[in-house]
């Protein structure tokens, strides 16, 4: 069993290295050097660099999924579930910013990692089921495709890792509330839509007259 103090150092150093340089470009020598260890000493804690990557991302990935599982089982109305899910997502990204960034950069969407693909799929399905609840209850009257709406929300939330900086002028809760207001506004408000195919009347134009030459 690894000593917690050294293990935490290794995890933090690995997360920073993976986020800054990418997993492929980071060597175990880089991580060992960052914590003042020999490369061989790392093998007391891990069997491979992949083990270290999974250790970096597992905590926040499981936390965000577990919170959505619990929220899905409540009797709250869909609007409140979406609001709480959004806040939870943003707060976990904020509290585990580097680790979450590594997950989205190196793990998310990789089909060759079935365990993590299954987690991503479950998260998507749980959130989509909440959106469908809102559609069925009439709360989300503007939704025509729950899957597209859910993917749009998840994509917007995950994109935070590209521009948000913890400790900056924007607080995580403020961002979460703004995301909720924008997203829920789009779900609830039905806007008048123009037909996809329209006959457009061309604008008549007058050709410029040629100048007379003296």
UniProtKB/TrEMBL annotation:
Keywords: DNA-binding, Repressor, Transcription, Transcription regulation. InterPro entries: Homeodomain-like_sf, HTH-type_TetR-like_transc_reg, HTH_TetR, KstR2_TetR_C, Tet_transcr_reg_TetR-rel_C_sf. One of its GO terms (molecular function) is transcription cis-regulatory region binding. Gene3D superfamilies: Homeodomain-like (1.10.10.60), Tetracycline Repressor, domain 2 (1.10.357.10). The keyword Magnesium does not apply. SUPFAM superfamilies: Homeodomain-like, Tetracyclin repressor-like, C-terminal domain. Residues 4-64 form the HTH tetR-type domain. The keyword Oxidoreductase does not apply. It holds the Pfam family TetR_C_24. This is Unannotated protein. It comes from freshwater metagenome.
């Amino acid at each position: 069993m690894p000593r917690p103090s050294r293990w935490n150092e290794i995890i933090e150093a690995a997360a920073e290295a993976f986020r800054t340089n990418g997993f492929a470009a980071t060597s175990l020598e880089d991580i060992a050097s960052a914590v003042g260890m020999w490369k061989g000493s790392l093998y007391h804690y891990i069997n491979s660099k992949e083990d270290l990557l999974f250790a970096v991302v597992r905590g926040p990935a499981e936390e965000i999924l577990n919170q959505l599982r619990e929220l899905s089982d409540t009797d709250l109305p869909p609007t409140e579930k979406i609001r709480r899910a959004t806040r939870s997502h943003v707060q976990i990204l904020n509290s585990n910013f580097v680790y979450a960034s590594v997950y989205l950069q190196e793990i998310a969407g990789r089909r060759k990692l079935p365990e993590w693909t299954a987690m991503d799929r479950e998260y998507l399905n749980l959130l989509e089921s909440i959106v469908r609840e809102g559609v069925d209850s009439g709360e989300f009257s503007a939704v025509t495709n729950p899957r597209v709406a859910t993917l749009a929300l998840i994509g917007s939330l995950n994109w935070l890792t590209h521009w948000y900086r913890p400790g900056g002028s924007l607080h995580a809760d403020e961002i979460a509330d703004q995301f909720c207001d924008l997203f829920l506004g789009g779900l609830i408000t039905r806007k008048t839509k123009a037909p996809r195919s329209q006959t457009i009347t061309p604008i008549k134009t007058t050709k410029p007259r040629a100048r007379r030459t003296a």
